[in-house]
Amino acid sequence: MKRKGIVVAVVCLSALITVFNAVYIGRNQFIHIIKDVFNRNMVNNSSNFRDIVSTISTKKFAITKSMNESIMKLYARSFDNVITPYSSKYMIDGKNICSVSPLPSLLIFVLSLPKAKEERQAIRQTWGSVAKQSQAFFNISTRLVFVLGRMAEETLSQVLKDESTEYQDMVQIDFIESRYNLTRKMMHGLMWVKTYCQSINYILKADDDTFINVIRLSDYLLRDSNISHDTIHGFLYRKGGQVLRYGKYAVSKEELPSDRYPPYASGTAYILPYDVISDMFDLAERLPYCPVDDAFLTGVLRVILDIKLKHTDYFTDMFQYHYKPCKFHSQIAVTNINTKCMYLLWNLTTHEKETDCEQSKLYDKQICSIFG
Ligand SMILES: *[C@@H]1O[C@H](CO)[C@@H](O)[C@H](O)[C@H]1NC(C)=O
Ligand SMILES: *[C@@H]1O[C@H](CO)[C@@H](O)[C@H](O)[C@H]1NC(C)=O
Ligand SMILES: *[C@@H]1O[C@H](CO)[C@@H](O)[C@H](O)[C@H]1NC(C)=O
Ligand SMILES: *[C@@H]1O[C@H](CO)[C@@H](O)[C@H](O)[C@H]1NC(C)=O
Ligand SMILES: *[C@@H]1O[C@H](CO)[C@@H](O)[C@H](O)[C@H]1NC(C)=O
Ligand SMILES: *[C@@H]1O[C@H](CO)[C@@H](O)[C@H](O)[C@H]1NC(C)=O
Ligand SMILES: *[C@@H]1O[C@H](CO)[C@@H](O)[C@H](O)[C@H]1NC(C)=O
Predict the structure, then answer these.
(1) Domain residue spans in the chain?
(2) Which of 1, 33, 216, 307 has its CA 20 to 30 A from that of 227?
(3) What pTM did the predictor assign?
(4) Which residue's C-alpha comes closest to atom 4 of ligand 6?
């Protein structure tokens, strides 16, 4: 009976491979497909399972029907070759950030510019401090990393190296900073994670003007039973969005032929499971470069790879400006935050009881324009 199951499974696998033999996908996706086949045939022998996975995953071609359909919808062609390589070199490799015990399970991943030391300091001294000292309310082994590229005229290299030596929380990658290069920045950053930070389960991606209420984040990660390794969590644009061909967020037809983005999460802050980043990386190298990083990563790549996406109101997007102080106790992320406001919000979330928020003494419109 067992044998028969295995034979059926192997036949199914060969069928899958022959039918869908054009598009490369990563190892995790193989495992997913194979598990599926095994489940359907009720094969239950993990040693056989491992054999088959290791044989099959050296052949880089298998894709599910729904993935193929997604690719067809978005690009109307299939991709076998690396056309957008993301290999890179580091000016600051940050290789010790994640190697110190206790190994982290969460990585706070903040995009930062070389000149933005004030913003980095504000994060280090406020919500980012959970990466350095454990707090009663934050029980997750965490590291903070600022991901930087370089300016065309690099003038800060020694200053940045000194800052990095002092704080041990920076990675600088050798590409030129620009809005157009934001996807490149994300991808290089994820590659760094894959190389140097393999113990983690989740990445919390944030911008350096985003404030994270780490108390709520901890609740969400530890107590929400629905958080899982195959789901991106964030503030969702459920209907996706139009692909703009001009202006600040312009994307050409060559970069993305489809007229609309699939549903995606706002890039201001989202949770990305570690398990999906290799597949994202492998696929991104086989698609044309697309400069709108959040729509590309959590929309296009996600849809093709069949990764789930979950909306939560606790996250935010860059168009939300007005909050009442009480709202902060339930929010995980707010954005458009200047550094002074960062300190104020930190005081608000750590020094004030939830019940005090109606009469908050810290509430200060002068400092935080987000108080509506
Ligand atoms: C993907 O779907 C298209 C359109 O249905 C089909 O022509 C193509 O052969 C498929 N490619 C793969 C790799 O399955
Ligand atoms: C596989 O084996 C485990 C342990 O023997 C058992 O608990 C599980 O129910 C089995 N699964 C299937 C699908 O037979
Ligand atoms: C699982 O498969 C391997 C390889 O075919 C075999 O050596 C082993 O005995 C099997 N284990 C069980 C529990 O059936
Ligand atoms: C923190 O983690 C430790 C060890 O896993 C556990 O015993 C403790 O209850 C946790 N505390 C909170 C507040 O979750
Ligand atoms: C993006 O980075 C690459 C690599 O450093 C650089 O050659 C290119 O000029 C940058 N693009 C823009 C638009 O800044
Ligand atoms: C978990 O997911 C289920 C099904 O989607 C939903 O009904 C439930 O409310 C969710 N629980 C939480 C705590 O979000
Ligand atoms: C935050 O609290 C600290 C210590 O209580 C205080 O010195 C600081 O002025 C406060 N900052 C803001 C912006 O409210």
Answers:
(1) 2-76, 90-311, 325-368
(2) 33
(3) 0.77
(4) 226
